[in-house]
What we know:
Elements: H1 2-15, H2 24-41, E1 50-58, E2 61-69, E3 77-83, E4 88-94, H3 110-124, E5 132-134, E6 147-156, E7 159-171, E8 177-183, H4 199-209, E9 213-224, E10 231-239, E11 245-248, E12 254-256, H5 280-288, H6 295-306, E13 313-321, E14 329-339, E15 342-351, E16 357-362, H7 376-390, E17 398-400, E18 411-420, E19 423-435, E20 440-447, H8 462-473, E21 475-483, E22 493-501, E23 509-510, H9 541-549, H10 567-578, H11 589-598, H12 615-625, H13 629-632, H14 653-661, H15 681-693
Parallel strand pairs: 9-19
Antiparallel strand pairs: 1-2, 2-3, 3-4, 4-8, 5-6, 6-7, 7-8, 9-10, 10-23, 11-12, 11-22, 13-14, 14-15, 15-16, 16-20, 17-18, 18-19, 19-20, 21-22
Amino acid sequence: xxxxLIFLLVAILxxxxxxxxxxxxxxxxxxxxVIFKVxxxxxxxxxxxxxxxxxxxxxxxxxxxxxxxxxTNKMDNISVSADSKGNIISFNKYNPNYIQPDTKLPKYSQxxxxxxxxxFIKKVDPNNVNNIKLIENNEPIRSSDxxxxxxxxxxxxxxxxxxxxxNISMNKFTGEINxxxxxxxxxxxxxxxxxxxxxxxxKGAYRDKIGLELIYKSSFRTFKxxxxxxxxxxxxxxxxxxxxxxxxxxxxxxINIGYYGNGGAAEEKDMAASSNVITPEERAxxxxxxxIMDVEDLEPKAREILGLxxxxxxxxxxxxxxxxxxxxYIWSMYFIKKVDNESKxxxxxxNAKTGELMxxxxxxxxxxNSKPVLSKEESLKMAKAYLEKAQPSRVNSVxxxxxxxxxxxxxxxxxxxxxxxxxxxxxxxISIGVDAVNKEVNSYGLxxxxxxxxxxxxxxxxxxxxxxxxxxxxxxxxxxxxxxxxKPDGENKEIKLVYAVNTNKPSIIEAHSGEILDYSGIPxxxxxxxxxTDINDSNFKEEIQxxxxxxxxxxxDKFMPKEKIKQKDFIYLLYKSINSYGAERETxxxxxYDDLVRSNIIREGDKNPERIITKEEAVKFxxxxxxxxxxxxxxxxxxxxxxxxxxxxxxxxxxxxxxxGLGIIKVDASNNIKPKAELNRENAASIxxxxxxx
Length: 694
């Protein structure tokens, strides 16, 4: 009966669908075949009373989306997507009723989960399992995650093709696969390796035709410049200037396969007085807004630049802080006009103190019949002329980034990057867009840091930088998808063999030391599970190792289990147990204290980083981290259950009793809890382990 219901629903769905590539009979048969395959493959019961589906097409491909659910919520909800040939694209299963695991430690190890994942892939698509490579992930396990997640990339001729991948996740406690997704090109040709240039020739081509540059890069972090000692958010590094560029493995020519964005966000700053007294700090902020122009004074200039008639109304205006230049403010304005049920609009922004034009964009609607009047060369000439007119004082401080756009486009976008003493300032520059149909500049953007950049100092040689790039960061042969957006979908992708810098590490080389940096400007450190070399004789070896597997660990390979533990080190481990996704290191201890103050785990008078922590103080922080502090602080309800209960601080009696009841701490043979005992590092690890996993 239910099978007939399913196919009745399918027939209803198909009744209103028209696809040119399919006759109705063939379409029904393909849908029916896919449903049978999916139900058999995933052992989907006939007991489901609800089924729905949807269909989409892209080019000449058709995709089915199938969903089974049970109105009584007694069975898992299952969703599967597949193409018309029955190839499984995705699988998702979830229980509508959350089941609390009976243990906090996983029942399956990562190695067991990996084998289950591979078996699942083999079942779903036997041809793929032998053509994939696991992306190694040595990061600590996240205690908040219920699943192991594995990512595989495709191999073709034993060469990686990262654009194709399989992602799969398995529940740590049940051993069931919850999610599977295969991004896989099935009808595409891969070139053979016959006739490609050598790896060394590829490196030479990269160096000659793409290359490294000295670049000022910006960071979200503030740090002290090693030369001047001043606070800065800029650092000097060797790296590729722009775009994701690779080398064609046959010709040695550069290919641009994408661009990085350099967008930034600005936040509005609300200013409100909390009393009738202005503090020096408040006065400094107030002084910053002195001299801000009225937006009404800038509106005529905005209309002139955008070429707006009186039919355009000022729809919105916004004053915000310049994120790159603190103390500067920007006025932005948005205009709109209704014409024949169609909206025309434009936006523009100015420096709110100087009136300098910061950006504008004109929205011109172009249809499929529009033809460019200007060539690429003519458009660039127009952009350069506008640059000289808009920024005569900066025109000699910028350099055009090589543009790979094709001639014959409707619009062109040119980016001129700031350059100081042969050093590029990556996030600074001027961008200009040209409408090649209407023969006008339709966009402009100025992004410019007005502060002091760090001095160049003594840098490593470019040869040394290339040694680091090729040896320490890596260079590889791989397949890459190249898109031609002038062609229609389904015909616009070509697979090429390319030589490229390995993307597993950032291509950022500190210009003075040669260290590989992350994107915030600090030394790159690959996340991995710490392996201690000095815990074999510890009574808590397994607990310490398990904590390390979950990222609750120090960065050193020395744990020093018998040494007394300082408050700051206990706080660091506790913080890592709470923030499993945090990237903080021991050196970020002040930030960690600040975060724990905000979450009320650290309170006034608690902070004493260098003090040796006692058992009752450690328990106090743990109980607060568990959100049990309100219960623990109820007075006069906790009994004297330990022989030495009188030794416990009066306001911590509840904390100690609760921790004992939860198995976080134990008494000795004489029923003493020893609240004032100074903890060593292995005892501290045991407390954190028991609070996390008991």
